Amino acid sequence: MTLATDFRPRHSRLYRLRRAYFASPLTGLVTLLSVAILAWLAWIVLDWTVLQATFDADANQAICAERAGACWSVIANRWRIILFGLYPLDEQWRAGVACAVVALVIVLSCLPLMWRFSRLALVWVLGTAVFYTLMRGGIFGLVPVNEQQWGGLPLTLFIFVATGILGMPLAIGLALMRRSELPVIARVSGWIIDTIRSLPLLAILFTCAIVLPFMLPGFLIGEKLYRVIFGAALFFAAYQAEIIRGGFQGIPRGQEEAAKALGLGYWQRMGKVVLPQAFRLALPATINQFVIAFMETSLVVVVGFMELLAASNTAFRTGEWRFAYIEVYVFISAIYFAFVFGLSRYGAWLEARMSAGQRKD
Amino acid sequence: MDLNTDAIAISDLHKYYGRFHALQGINLTIRKGEKVVVCGPSGSGKSTLIRCINQLEEHDAGDIRVFGTLLDDNVGSIDEIRREVGMVFQHFNLFPHMTVLENCTLAPTLVRKISRAEAEKTAMRFLEKVRIPDQAHKFPGQLSGGQQQRVAIARALCMQPHILLFDEPTSALDPEMIAEVLDVMVSLATEGMTMVCVTHEMGFARKVADRVIFMDKGEIVEEAPPEEFFSAPKNERSKLFLAQVLGH
Questions:
Q1: What is the rounded CA–CA span in Å between residue B24 and residue B217?
Q2: A198: three-class secondary structure by DSSP
Q3: Chain A residues with CB inside 8 Å of B87's CB?
Q4: What is the CATH number of the domain that holds A335?
Q5: Of B86, B91, B155, the CB nearest to A254
Q6: Are residues A180 and A40 in the same domain?
Q7: Number of cross-chain residue pairs from A and B with Cβ atoms under 8 Å apart
Q8: What is the pTM of this model?
Q9: Does one domain contain both A79 and A7?
Q10: ipTM of predicted complex
Q11: Residue A102 lies in a domain
């Protein structure tokens, strides 16, 4: 048992800083040099993004060129294309609300309060239904908008969330199959995982978008977007299954034996004892996998979808704004950064929360 | 399941690990309410034997009956027996992601379908019995080894089993914590629980066992009441073992 003792550092903060960064003349020099470089970089960024930048929405290339900084006028003029792609201009409020719905689904799914199968299922089914109705239209007097016209942020978020929601249960299924006591099931799962992992994501997306329609009966083909999401989910599941398997391997054998001895059935053992512990162990790698999945949504551009990155590329592909590509990329980088950084912080918070009150023995 | 027959009846039990013959024809009958201590050198098959009783290990030949129910490939019979047979492990095997109370209520609510409130009431009763009700809302990792093992005993008791199996319950404990666990086991024994203990605690065997079973190389070599076993072991291997365990 650890005793809470009144912990008081032996040395002042200043002393510890000096010991860490100025222990010898050489470390002191390195410290000063690093600080100088960082300050210089920070100044360049600040100068370009704010001090010398043009914020006037009506400015054009000539006006922007008079100042050395960023020309944010391009964002003011082209943000609709960047965020919503080819979605019809008059209907873009729907895409905006749909984005908010997906964001809400993500936030809700992240709350430990919601981690019951029934609650998650409710949020996901409801969220998907609202998103689809808003985006696709065709009922409640909403003008129909074909999936091919979806684009920008809502498309990126939808592909990401759908990949996770489909991919995670698939991953759990594959991981459980892989540790099955029946060799046939374990081997089949191993083959599926290894096959998918040995294919590049691009090849899978192409296959789902272009080759699959030739092989499937008509009623199974469905919209290209959903085939692509299915492909991305399979890819996600193969990697995530291996991450979960790593988690399984970190659980002592005695855990499952104790659950068996108490009379718990297979699904009870998995649901209450094995999987919760496997996910705790696999959490850092799982967050990593989600970050990768978010970044990889940009690959759907190759099968003709205008997600965030592709939409941004078109935003400056007009004669007028051709010069301002850096500003556009900085803008969407900030969007990607906000999501991925948020995800990483969330992962760190979860880890801290899970280890609180629990010591590994 | 018939509570009026022998608690455990094992006949001609065999178990192989690959080509290793771990149990070589075990015959053993344990009456209801009897306390049996199983001892023997490591690798003698004593853990394997009790793990066969609740089928953590599958046996390869022979019959095991628990209160008359034959353990066979029928999943139902395994489930039925695991509900009535509790087990305490060497390494406690508490669920680290659940509090002490959740550890104790998990199986009763899931397997016995008892309401949460009632399961918690039962759990607190047994936590009091093992003398750690004040730790109910802590996680296992915050407890000492001895406390964890007492929680593990309470967790097993919460299923209200008719038989308790102990697989070296004190072997992983620091010396100063062994007594607190043995005390709990002794009080259980005096209340009439049927107990099968794999242990090297000869003092405990002397105090509560109705019978001591000595195993070596997958066989039961000797079985006798404790006084007889400790004072006048008949078999050479038992004598050697006792000399090693007690001889220092």
A1: 8
A2: coil
A3: 258, 261
A4: 1.10.3720.10
A5: B91
A6: no
A7: 82
A8: 0.84
A9: no
A10: 0.92
A11: no
